[in-house]
Amino acid sequence: xxxxxxxxxxxxxxxxxxxxxxxxxxxxxxxxxxxxxxxxxxxxxxxxxxxxxxxxxxxxxxxxxxxxxxxxxxxxxxxxxxxxxxxxxxxxxxxxxxxxxxxxxxxxxxxxxxxxxxxxxxxxxxxxxxxxxxxxxxxxxxxxxxxxxxxxxxxxxxxxxxxxxxxxxxxxxxxxxxxxxxxxxxxxxxxxxxxxxxxxxxxxxxxxxxxxxxxxxxxxxxxxxxxxxxxxxxxxxxxxxxxxxxxxxxxxxxxxxxxxxxxxxxxxxxxxxxxxxxxxxxxxxxxxxxxxxxxxxxxxxxxxxxxxxxxxxxxxxxxxxxxxxxxxxxxxxxxxxxxxxxxxxxxxxxxxxxxxxxxxxxxxxxxxxxxxxxxxxxxxxxxxxxxxxxxxxxxxxxxxxxxxxxxxxxxxxxxxxxxxxxxxxxxxxxxx
Amino acid sequence: xxxxxxxxxxxxxxxxxxxxxxxxxxxxxxxxxxxxxxxxxxxxxxxxxxxxxxxxxxxxxxxxxxxxxxxxxxxxxxxxxxxxxxxxxxxxxxxxxxxxxxxxxxxxxxxxxxxxxxxxxxxxxxxxxxxxxxxxxxxxxxxxxxxxxxxxxxxxxxxxxxxxxxxxxxxxxxxxxxxxxxxxxxxxxxxxxxxxxxxxxxxxxxxxxxxxxxxxxxxxxx
Amino acid sequence: xxxxxxxxxxxxxxxxxxxxxxxxxxxxxxxxxxxxxxxxxxxxxxxxxxxxxxxxxxxxxxxxxxxxxxxxxxxxxxxxxxxxxxxxxxxxxxxxxxxxxxxxxxxxxxxxxxxxxx
Lengths: 432, 222, 118
Known about the structure:
The complex is a heterotrimer.
Chain A: H1 3-38, H2 54-63, H3 75-91, H4 131-152, H5 156-187, H6 192-198, H7 209-222, H8 234-237, H9 247-272, H10 281-326, H11 332-360, H12 364-386, H13 398-404, H14 413-422, H15 425-431
Chain B: H1 2-25, H2 29-49, H3 53-77, H4 92-116, H5 137-145, H6 149-175, H7 183-194
Helix pairs in contact in B: 1-2, 2-3
Chain C: H1 2-29, H2 58-112
């Protein structure tokens, strides 16, 4: 541990923080462009080529915006809340391995058991023995930012949003840790690097498919993304907990949300999709080493693994935006029912499955596929049970009014839809 | 390295003591809760300094992530938060007397331990074959099911009892509350009341609340 | 081992610096013209009346309580899960009993209707 190492570490810490913040900025652009596509719009495309400078423009705007602190707010807590929100969102990244760039210049160490091999991976800040628990501990702290923001603003909307969200976050945190407990049982370790190493054969999604589904639902709720974004339900709560926040402080809350989204996707990639692993990576390292020596080989392996990780990450983010574009927001009681009556029992069931299968079937590979089958059956049954009957139909639809009125029913459905597509004003006028 | 750790220990200890003092002196209850959280963090850092990483993370996970949230909820559910005009401590000589008595009691508890404990003893060398003491979490898991099986199960029972107790207490409150019907339920009820079944009308159901007077959340049925 | 936590501490410093820097920068850049109207509490154009500290549903507290209990349960299970493959059937049984005790609590809560949001 000499000064050079410490310098590398400081640079590394700042680069990763910078990367995360930049990723946040461009995730907003990514999301806005994609949402626009889903809604048949164009999206922001004026600032720079293809809207590339839009995040910069947003940032500049926020810098010059006046900062208003409500007179009724509790000032110290009001100022502390954004910091308490954003710091956990960033330090989550400390234990996630983005790739494997071994600065001891031996790519083989990346593919060896991290408990025994001498690997100095600069694409992961800290490799600790309790990495998984660290992730949960840090996620748990994130609740404070929202709760305290709601309380300190001294506004009823904020307060309602804050207390709603903290109840939501803690409910789903439970489901989340239950889902991950299955992963921990499968790999018998709490270290993230170890989990990635052990996914060399099969990715974690095979033995823990049920865990993966639960993780995805619970983590979406944990980062208050649509369809679980009740915290900021703008129709009922104005802005939720950040109603009274403006300018940079609002930006910090916004940043928290997106950084958490990226982080939780990265965690999903690490636990269920093999982290930075990619089939053929080791062969690639072998080939490069034969051609250009060990330094180039470990560099190439490092960059390719980072690329694989980012590719998987972007796939997750795309799915997240897709879900946001497709699903309406849940009602609060449904949200709580989902968390406590579906996800938590299913998480416990997943534990039982994992335990029983691994005790009965000693062969890890066979057990994994048995677990996959069990998960699929369970999910099918759960979906069958959860499909609710249609609600009592006591709402009078516009359609019925039209049929009862003087306007004659349209001659044929196809004809009407064609008419609607060619001249949208005509059917509207007949509806009156 | 040892000096660095000593310095860090000193800083953390100062943080813990300072935060603890703030907890009892700050007037606003939420601020007190925040100082308490800082205190919990300090304790977690101390565990880390003792190389008990699992305990450190669990300290943050349980105390900071769960119990403090519960405390915050409890405070937010109460009305009086700022504590203005509330006298927290008696002043004058009574305060000093109280402090003296507390200090004395604490000393009675701590001094025999401090005296009887022999400091600066190196850790005894482990007999060969024992796993590394810091192998940590897996060791702990094994200990849970072998040496401390009874305690493990008793902890489970304790948690369940706590849960049941909480529900029983909360339900006394809940039983007095009136349930707000959903639109569908109200419709169903109205339909049933309009065409009563031949045997008898459903007993115990309240009359459908008119839509014009919504029942507020906190309203208690008299 | 502590070295890794020192890394996290350095990262923590970076994580504090990053949000702080734009806040400080914005402090020097932005206009500051506070007025009483601007600083009043937002309330859809009306004036805010009444106390913020309305009494919330006890339900929120119940959820928090159940969360604490199950969180501790899960924390207890983590060491067991790590050692799980060395413990065999015996360890499985021990944890199963623990899990059954707690599931009984969950079922009680469910049957009692404490998980209903009303």
